[in-house]
Input
Amino acid sequence: MKIIKIIYLLVLLLSILSCKRYNLEENQGNNELTAQATKINKQEAQKILNSKVNLASFSEPGKFNISIPDNYISTVTVYEQGNIDLKFGKIDFETLKDVIAIDLTSALLPRERLCSQSVYIVKEENLNLVTIAEIKKQIVKENHIYFEDSNSIIYGENFTVIHYEYDSTSKSYIIYNGEVDHFAKFPEKENLALHMLKNGKNLLKKDFKKNPFNSWEEYVLNTPQAEIYLFKSIFNKLDKEMKAFLDINQSVSPRSEGNYDYVTFYRTNDEMDFTYLNFLNAVKTNALENFTIPEKISSDFDNIFFSSRYSLSNKYSFTQIDNLTDLKITDSGYNNRVFEKLICNVQYEGKSFYLVTNEVSDLTRDFYIKMFNYYSKNKTLDIPALKK
Output
């Protein structure tokens, strides 16, 4: 009797496990997420795929016309026949001439190894060369699929993302291929994979309109959690410096897990604050010839606020945005190259600090403005409502 019960329990256990296993044949094209080894569900996937993004057109006449996130950097490479070893469906890249490859990178974190994203463009008039079923047979070597629909798949330990479409205008296959970096240390890799898939699904979107992000909260809700996590980890280090360690005229530039720095945090006193405000007033009133930096103020102050080449021959302009100054420096010593830095005052228990960007561009400016102003008011990047 005991043997029969054991056999019954084993059969029951096996049947339960088999229900949880993802069946490749039964789930083809169902747009469903597997329950295996992932926290993602279908509703969460659609939420991310429909989340807010501003796009920009990226094109080369007669070759391609795609849409990418407007804060992305793109690099184009044209591979000659035999120089690229890829195969999707019946398309063998190694046999093709002039395969266009576009590498995409977020301008916020261009050097961090969070993921790789590429778009391949192949001229071809045959509309029946690629299917997800064929891609699965070729590439997916394991029963480890997180997401699948009629032209997309996310699979594997590295959360590889493949999405393809046919562009009838250019008569080309547009194939997106992305992969989360295996060694990247951050939570929610599934979240990043779905944001990558969103990039793939937007490639041929043409009817987009730009809607500015109105707050840091909006950026947090619509940006991959891996990117937000990286900035939070940096600002968590600033908290300790602000509350305990940083003395007057000292600065710190915390490094990310990838060993890069993005911001400088500098502590000042009343005299330094007064000098900085006098400088801004001199710029505003076109009276820079009457402005001088007091000798007792250190060169570190000069470097952080005015660039390392402060000179009356330079041209300065600024815009005030809440608690932040957007300072532009046209440096005559560098062929009138324009340097830009965002400077945000942070007050904490009677102490004065300044957050300063190490790099900023048209692609990243608004993100930093919203992030700096939120931090200066809340002393954290966390949003309480999202923790509930």
Observations:
- The chain has two domains: 23-201, 216-387.
